[in-house]
Design goal:
Shape: elongated
Strand content: 15-25%
Number of domains: 3
Radius of gyration: 24 Å
Structural class: alpha+beta
Number of helices: 10
CATH superfamily of the largest domain: Jelly Rolls
CATH topology of the largest domain: Jelly Rolls
Number of strands: 13
Mean pLDDT: 79
Helix content: 25-40%
CATH class of the largest domain: Mainly Beta
Length: 338
């Protein structure tokens, strides 16, 4: 796989020797560090016997766009521990979005496209790639879970297994940490890494089977009955109501996305397009309106101090509340009591 910042620039990552997707004998390992215009990153790679593992950690202060090209067919298990990205590849009709704590499976005869990362303090992504030969050895073609995937691979068609990404479990997160800092060296390291990869694939397969998602391209999984489907608009409306009812202690964006069954990227984009505001702005508006109501309430509530009101609407410190109130209304909270 070759990765670069823009066409014509020097490669940040490129394949070396004959270790494309781990086809070489033994264990091949390397670490690549590179600088970006608005950050830095390092990639740790291991490849062996039809498997390649690529673990990337980055610190970004602004958006970053990377071009990528891989002419080798592969099945990719993608795990996003901390990530907000949008990718577009030749042969895949839809943009592929990932948010933190999500995973999915992609299969492609080749990869050529670009990945855009949103600005985050830290990014942590891990990909596991299987050659088609290893994958065929791993999972029998007649498997009811994977059989359609084998057919699409044979046809040279690209796609994603899940229409929506799947949520990382705590066990998956543990396995990813163990892969990133393997506790074995030498000949045992290969066995150690392969055991972690295979457990990840088992956990992924179980989630896919239980979720019953229809696939983006191949129809791998059974489609969800129409009676169980909810439109994106309905999920966004649910998210809106959750925020309105919990502005004093709102869920994080990741928690909200999980509650309504959307990834963070879709939630943020759809929320802005549908309601004309962001989740954060809605929280602030709810807090400010409630605070103003408490400040203007009659004698029964007059004993509430500014600190009491700040706490009631979700601010730990009265100074933070006062600053937010001044920014929102253009006046200090105490001015409403004069």
């Amino acid at each position: 796989m070759n990765v670069w910042q823009q066409e014509g620039s020097a490669a940040l990552i490129e394949e070396q020797h004959n270790n494309v997707c781990g086809v070489g004998e033994g264990l091949f390992e390397r670490r690549v560090e590179f600088l970006l215009p608005h950050g830095k990153a390092h990639v740790q790679e291991w490849s062996f016997g039809g498997i390649e593992i690529r673990s990337m950690a980055a610190e970004l202060t602004d958006r970053a766009i990377l071009q990528t090209e891989d002419l080798a067919p592969r099945i990719t298990l993608h795990f996003a521990t901390r990530e907000h990205s949008s990718s577009r590849y030749e042969g895949v009709s839809e943009h592929i979005h990932y948010a933190s704590f999500e995973h999915n499976v992609m299969f492609s005869p080749f990869v050529c496209g670009e990945i855009e990362y949103e600005a985050l303090e830290k990014v942590r992504v891990c990909e596991v790639r299987f050659t088609p030969e290893y994958f065929a050895h791993l999972v029998p073609e007649e498997s009811p879970l994977i059989a359609p995937l084998h057919k699409e691979i044979a046809r040279g068609k690209a796609g994603m297994v899940g229409k929506a990404n799947f949520a990382l479990t705590s066990r998956m997160e543990t396995l990813l940490r163990e892969i990133h800092t393997p506790a074995r060296r030498g000949c045992l390291q290969k066995i150690f890494l392969e055991s972690k990869v295979l457990e990840l694939f088992v956990l992924q397969s179980e989630q896919i089977q239980q979720a019953g998602h229809g696939c983006r391209e191949c129809g791998l999984c059974s489609p969800t009955p129409a009676s169980q489907k909810r439109s994106e608009r309905e999920r966004l409306q649910e998210a809106f109501e959750i925020v309105c009812n919990s502005f004093a202690a709102p869920p994080t964006l990741a928690e909200l996305a999980r509650q309504v069954g959307l990834n963070e990227f879709t939630l943020k984009r759809g929320f802005k397009e549908t309601f004309g505001t962001t989740v954060y702005a809605l929280v602030v508006a709810g807090r400010m309106k409630k605070a103003r109501e408490l400040l203007l309430t009659g004698d029964t509530q007059q004993s509430l101090t500014i600190a009491d009101i700040a706490e009631a609407v979700g601010y730990e410190h009265a100074t933070h509340f006062t600053a937010a109130f001044k920014k929102y209304f253009g006046e200090l909270p105490r001015s409403l009591r004069q």
